[in-house]
Structure to design on (406 residues):
């Protein structure tokens, strides 16, 4: 006997940071929020992943859950000095004063699993309903709403669905929404190392052409409890050899004190996708795509989660407005406004991260420009500043967002 579907006004798919942010925004608007998550409640997810929470993101979260931003800021690390080197020589350094007491910092840096823990606690306190082990197997939409089916055999219906189920979004695939963009040819190794009893100064350090690793670019970023280390590979490098065993430990000892080489908590390799969904909603305007269900960027500038949370907030607001009006055209317009504005922001972030990627994998002309800037940085701070900021992409304001500070 087929079980009747369970109905909710809005269903969120995905219990990552974006999905939980959407749920908190719905609760702040006075709406019930139900989250369907494919994984188990106590699922273990490797790696620090999205370690930066920008102030703009903290502000969004604090509107939905007052005090949450302060908790994240207090748990995370705020480094106040950044340095950039070219071929082993420092070309830029700047230190900033600590945040004013009671003020939110420009960012806080902590493992994503910790951010998710705080979000989950806030969601439970707000009365969000979670349904775990509920991988989506089917999603259809119509004039009256959406219907979802899960691997457990359950069926759910809703007027609106906020899809926050990540890069392999089952909802997006089921609806046939395509993504367009490109993949970087270059490989990177990312490593988490745990902090030691003799910690290094908490400084963000970027190396162009690090001499101790055969001229590869290296990024060192501290976060609460450890360090993120990114190694940009040369063409022809074997990613597997440099991401495990003796090969990994050898280059780690070259860029960090040797004691860190035996404190690897996680290592992975990746190439970058730069893709954006062709539409952030379905033809019936019943599903709202958010976060990595809607876009994937190279991580330069930490634009992933920090654009996904505003997506989630905008999606919750659009669903709330649509549910509040009795005029179908106004409800449809609310979802369309969300889809247009957040896709515009995603295209900006894709292109900004793409500019950073082009800077980090320069052609012959750009390599000459980098070398000339490095030579001139000792006499012209603007050149050093350019070398320091360019690896993270343009700093102009994305549509609908505030300025990101790195």
């Amino acid at each position: 006997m087929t079980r009747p579907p369970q109905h909710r006004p809005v269903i969120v798919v995905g219990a990552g940071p974006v999905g939980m942010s959407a749920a908190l925004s719905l609760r702040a608007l006075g709406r019930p929020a139900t989250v369907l998550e494919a994984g188990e409640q106590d699922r273990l997810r490797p790696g620090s992943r999205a370690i930066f929470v920008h102030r703009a993101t903290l502000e969004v979260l604090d509107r939905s859950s007052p005090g949450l931003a302060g908790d994240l800021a207090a748990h995370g690390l705020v480094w106040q000095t950044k340095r950039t080197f070219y071929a082993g020589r420092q070309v830029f350094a700047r230190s900033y004063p600590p945040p004013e007491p009671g003020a939110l910092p420009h960012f806080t840096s902590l493992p994503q699993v910790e951010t998710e823990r705080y979000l989950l606690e806030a969601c439970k306190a707000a009365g969000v309903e979670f349904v775990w082990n509920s991988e989506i197997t089917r999603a259809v939409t119509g004039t009256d709403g959406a219907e979802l089916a899960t691997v457990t055999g359950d069926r759910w219906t809703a007027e609106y669905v906020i899809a926050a189920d990540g890069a392999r979004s089952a909802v997006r695939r089921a609806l046939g929404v395509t993504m367009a963009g490109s993949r970087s040819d270059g490989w990177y190794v990312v490593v988490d190392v745990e902090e030691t009893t003799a910690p290094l100064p908490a400084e963000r350090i970027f190396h162009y052409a690090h001499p101790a690793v055969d001229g590869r670019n290296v990024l060192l970023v501290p976060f609460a409890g450890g360090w993120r280390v990114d190694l940009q590979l040369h063409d022809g490098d074997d990613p597997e050899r440099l991401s495990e065993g003796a090969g990994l430990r050898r280059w780690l000892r070259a860029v960090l004190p040797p004691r860190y080489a035996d404190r690897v908590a996680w290592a992975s390799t990746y190439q970058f996708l730069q893709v954006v969904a062709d539409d952030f909603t379905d033809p019936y305007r019943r599903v709202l795509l958010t976060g990595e269900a809607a876009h994937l960027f190279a991580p330069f500038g930490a634009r992933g989660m920090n654009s996904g949370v505003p997506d989630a907030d905008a999606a919750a607001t659009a669903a709330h407005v649509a549910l509040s009006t009795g005029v179908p055209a106004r409800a449809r317009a609310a979802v369309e406004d969300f889809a247009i504005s957040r896709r515009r922001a995603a295209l900006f972030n894709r292109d900004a991260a793409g500019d950073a990627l082009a800077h980090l994998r320069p052609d012959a002309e750009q390599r000459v420009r980098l070398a000339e800037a490095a030579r001139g940085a000792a006499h012209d701070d603007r050149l050093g500043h350019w070398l320091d900021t360019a690896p993270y992409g343009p700093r102009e304001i994305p549509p609908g967002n505030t300025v990101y500070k790195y």
Summary: Residues 402-406 have pLDDT under 50 and may be disordered. Residues 328-360 form the longest helix (33 residues).
